[in-house]
Input
Amino acid sequence: MEHIGLLDVHHLTVGYPDGGRVLQDISLHIHEGEIVCVIGESGCGKSTLLNAILQMPGRLHITEGEILFRGRNLRTLPREEVRRLRGTGMGMVFQEPGASMDPIRKIGAQFYETMRAHAPISRREAMGQAEDLLARLDLQDTRRILGSYPVELSGGQKQRVAIALAMALRPDILLADEPTSALDVTVQAQIVEELMRLRDDFGTALLVVTHNMGVVSRMADKVAVMYGGRIVEYGYRHDVMTAPAHPYTRALMDAIPRPDGTPPKAIPGVRTKKEFDYPCPFLDRCPYAHPACRTEKAEKIPIHGEHWTLCNAGFKGGAAS
Amino acid sequence: MENSLRPKGHSLGRYALRRLLLLIPVLFGVTLLTYGLMFLSPSDPVEMLLQAQGIPVSPEVVSAMRVRMGLDRPFLEQYFAWLWRFLRGDMGVSLIDGEPVWLMLKSAIPRTLLLTASSVLVTVVLSVPLGVLTAVRQNRFSDYLIRFLSFLGNAMPSFLLSLLLLYLFALRLGLLPVLAGGSVKGLILPTLALALPMSGRYIRQVRAAILEQLGKRYVAGAISRGVRARTVLIRSVLRNAMTTILTLISLSVGSLLGGTAAVERIFAWRGMGYMVMDAIFMRDYPVIQAFVVWMTILYVVINLLTDLSYALFDPRARKGLGVRS
Output
């Protein structure tokens, strides 16, 4: 398989045991230190993608495709190897600040537990490293925080602590599931800055799932637009945001409130359950759909460079106006 | 590690003291209520005593007995006379056989404590590991098997189980004595008769509590950091489920300490349940009153201990208690 980067997802299909699909034919390649944002509406499979990459236990099963971390196939790797990769190779930040922490154990103990799960380390040393990480995330009073319970911290503090916990073993890539959407707007901006600083400090690659265009435009090197369990457009941020090719991406851009007062336009229609059976997931809501879209499977159409879209309707770049 | 945000120790102590002070009005109300209910009930100790002896006695003798026992006095007077003596440490004597009530308690309470301790211990030892096991192996064979057995245990009333155990171990196998009689060997069967149905109930509740915790996001969080599943289970899940499990156990401890009428009867284990059944049957007011006081103190203290144990396990509960005091 080509494209050996830090994380390579090849033709990943994920579904429920009863056959219902959540992700279909997802391919994604992330290089060292790269920031990729996955954008899409709720329920499009963004979180599932992260859980699948980290091989989290659950009801969902990978039915097809491969996930390679540094060329190692996570689907065939022994479970103990996968466990060791979690935390050291790949970390995860969850949407709800603090949800990833045990509510009844002190934060220091959870740092220690995480570090101990991967290498022998003294408590004192673990606390030193944890304090250092917390300080890098602009937290003051780091010693007190380590002696606190999650409930004693504010939302922003919790999310920073959660990021620090995920970074405890300096993973090469951090998967972040809507890391800012549960936070106050001012805190959101700070968290975005701090996530980006992780790359500068540690060379950490980021795969950020979000539905916030602001986060995408601030952070992303590359953008993957998801709709109905498929990636419908992919490319460098500049290309995707200035020349959106897929009708859904265009609609998404038009739905952003603008400072000039242009009213945002809602995307007409609602998602259907049948989108997996359609040749194109956006078919029902697409203003540009033509008869051929109903019969021919939507194909990956290269635009230029790494920019491509999953659309047969013949829209190859150009402004949406 | 110092932590300025945690409520100081004294607030928890003050909270406990306040709860204990509440005992005073509660005790007053409860004893008055029981006294009133006994007064309203259609017969009195004299009648019951004479009935038990089966000898016809002249009405003069009956009323003389009533006067001697103080049963001819108005209700409130009787109650306050009892209360006054009780407050000075005199629980009175049994109206039936004249035995001092405190002596009766002195022999019954240790037996009940012993039976409670042993059956709760067996219950915990059986139900926590099995509950965890069924939760972790959800929907596999061992889960179904244990759940079926726990259903069986749960559905079986203690008295029936007592008889089955007696039949099997005492009559058929001759391993254990029929009557407990306060010996250690005699403790085994009543303990099982109480612990097996309780375990049946608890296995399911522990299973549910563990499953609930396993679905929490902090479990996913720990797994995503590469923490071993076993570590998460023991360090986090079990501890988080502990508050639920403790609540259940404290409820059982409360009712067990009140004595278990049926099981104590069947095995002739002369604990509180045995004592109070006799007392109620014979309308032995001082004994019943002493029992009610015992139960009230028990429930208040156990509830308090349970709440305090939440604070021990859960910093969120600690915060809650701290705010209130």
Q: What stands out?
A: The first helix of chain B runs from residue 9 to 21. The radius of gyration of chain B is 25 Å. The CA atoms of residues 101 and 123 of chain B lie 32 Å apart. The mean pLDDT of chain B is 83.
